[in-house]
Amino acid sequence: MNEVNTNGKLEGDVYYPSQEVIEKSYTKDYDSMYKRSIEEPEKFWDEMAREYYWSKPWDKVLDDSNPPFFKWFVGGKTNIVSNAIDRHLTTYRKNKLALIWESEAGDEVRTFSYYALNREVTRFANILKGMGVKKGDIVTIYMPRIPELQFAMLACAKIGAAHSVVYGGFSVESLAERIEDARSKVLITADGGFMRGKIVNLKQIANEAIARQGTIEHVVVVKRTGHDVHMEQGRDYWYHDLLGMPIINQPCETEQMDAEDLLYVLYTSGTTGKPKGVIHTHGGYMVFISATYKYIFDINDEDRYWCAADPGWVTGHSYIVYGPLIQGATSFMYEGAPNFPYPNRWWKMIEKYGITVLYAAPTAIRGLMRFGDAWPNRHDLSSLRLLGSVGEPINPEAWKWYYEVIGRSKCPIVDTWWQTETGGIMISALPTTPLKPGSATRPFFGIQADVYDLDGKPTAPGEEGLLVVTKPWPGLMRGILHDPERYKQQYFGKFTTAYEAGDAARKDKDGYFWVIGRLDDVIKVSGYRLGTAEIESALVSHPAVSEAAAIGLPHDVKGHAIHVYVVLKEGFSETETLGEELKKHVDHEIGPIARPEKIEIMSSLPKTRSGKIMRRLLRARALGQPEGDKSTLEE
Ligand code: 6R9
């Protein structure tokens, strides 16, 4: 249990919620509800799960007979789409807006009620069925930020197929290896997407990726940009052509799934080698994300909620698509870049659509903060009642700007710590929690988080250690696709009974968590998660490079930026254009998000005697810090 100093005043710089916020919140008393959820977790999750539709109730809330392979709501049957769409169609929500979308050029606005969303998802589901997609298949989705991306995800879930969404900013090799690992036969993509007024050529990237692997049989292509693309006869179909087929408008039953059936795979970067396919299910994931969404954002029918992440990352899966739809919320989605064409783009849309809740990454906040207060001050942001932060620690300076300038010192900030693997938010303030800038505050109901030292003992208040979760929760991934052993080793290998997140953290006297950052070779660049191994492998696939090492160094806006060190092959020497060429090569293989900030050519890389690159040493040298223990360094 998290011991908390509740007697006295909280320590440090504390922001208390207003009476108005407390009155409107679902949670008047966090402490007693948290205590109850921890003392009787199964009873707590049972109650939470009862808020949703199940075609067959569960026999057992938690099966923990084979840790760390936990099962939730065992024997229960549902489909996340039964809750995200179907159940709203028999209520007043049928004609409520589910989604408002604005194009980057600002010339198009599309809106969908729950009724219209159901129509679009049903049509897409019928297309997939017509292509032979069946329960258990994994469909890869590679799309720009347009409504059809959401329709495609929901259509897969509706017919019992799993989706694997690959972020539209990824490029050829990233897409190819994800399709290959998921063994997808069907790919859903678009001719292209718009970003900063330019076309991102998704179809061409998809064509190249398909040529590198051999599983894709059919491709559905949504027309977004209208530029010329190569369509392979017999393999590629335009979505708008398929929509013209008569069977498309037939009703489509939502397949009832076992609670533990696969909902999606989402690839994420880890310490070593290839990205791993994190898997989530229909039952436990659904209950966890919708409960966190409801309580952390205090969501109700009047809200206009905007999560400015990309649906291609876990934040988008849980808190753009599934969480908001299950709660019957109205969401806003914007296609393009935050400062396009001017730095007031976000603020302008908040005013235009009356956004009440904004959930964004610190990197975006810092990026917009750079342009000064005049841009947001030109707009009426008084519709906002709550702000959220996700993806990396938010530095107090950005926190205060977000709080004072965007939230006009009236909106609480919920700083939400979680991971692809955790499914949903784990540590976060609720709107009624007293806030400390830079701290994600306290665990959500039912979550037992702690900070351990290397021996698995809780650290003393203020002392740094490893962030762990000591009891299972329904949103925890069910494993890594095709690799159960890796799941067990990586997350439960160190402390067999506790989930190890890979983050460093400390807990203060008030039980507040302060997440410091990754302990492994994962770099968070602008909130995007990348592995040094992926960047290095992209670099060595260039003909001039023999070895490469990538590290993350602090960056004012991006949080961390990628710096790489490369050793050239015999016969190659540094030229004026080589650095630029290598950056372009990384763009082409992984995507522009992985583009190195700086490339340095070296004659050799520092390694341990067993041959491992000492990235720690490279980092210390780059930062001008003490080099620490060098006893294992190879001479
Ligand atoms: C949701 C998401 C997970 C890693 C995680 C941690 C970092 C996320 C954070 C945060 C401090 C927060 N992280 N939220 N660090 N404060 N509020 O980002 O998932 O892409 O899997 O990344 O992101 O380092 O371990 P994912």
Beta-strand content: 15-25%
Can you count the beta strands? Answer: 30
Secondary structure tally, helices: 19
Radius of gyration: 24 Å
* Spatial strand order of the main sheet: 12-11-8-6-7-14-15-23
Q: For the report, how would you describe the main beta sheet?
A: 8 strands, mixed
Name the helicity range. 25-40%
Bound molecules: ligand 6R9
Average the pLDDT over all residues and give the rounded result.
Answer: 95
Could you name the ranges where pLDDT drops below 50 across 5 or more consecutive residues?
none
- End-to-end Cα distance: 48 Å
Q: Assembly type of the shown chains?
A: single chain
* Helix-and-strand structural type: alpha/beta
Shape: globular
What does this structure look like?
With 635 residues, the chain is of the alpha/beta class. Helix 10 crosses helix 11 (314-326). An eight-stranded mixed beta sheet has the order 12-11-8-6-7-14-15-23, with helices on both faces. The protein is 29% helix and 23% strand. Strand 14 and strand 15 (276-281) form a beta hairpin. The chain contains 19 helices and 30 strands.
List the helices and strands and how they pair.
Layout: H1 19-24, H2 30-39, H3 41-49, E1 60-63, E2 71-74, E3 77-78, H4 80-84, E4 97-102, E5 109-113, H5 114-130, E6 138-142, H6 147-158, E7 162-165, H7 172-182, E8 186-190, E9 193-195, E10 198-200, H8 202-212, E11 218-222, E12 236-238, H9 239-242, E13 257-258, E14 262-268, E15 276-281, H10 283-297, E16 304-307, H11 314-326, E17 330-334, H12 345-353, E18 357-360, H13 362-369, H14 374-377, E19 386-390, H15 396-406, E20 413-416, E21 449-452, E22 465-469, E23 479-480, H16 484-492, E24 499-507, E25 513-518, E26 522-525, E27 528-531, H17 532-540, E28 545-555, E29 559-568, H18 578-589, E30 598-602, H19 615-623
Parallel strand pairs: 4-17, 6-7, 6-8, 7-14, 8-11, 11-12, 16-17, 16-18, 18-19, 19-20, 29-30
Antiparallel strand pairs: 1-2, 3-13, 4-5, 9-10, 14-15, 15-23, 21-22, 22-24, 24-25, 26-27, 28-29
Helix pairs in contact: 2-3, 5-6, 7-8, 10-11, 13-15
The structure holds ligand 6R9.
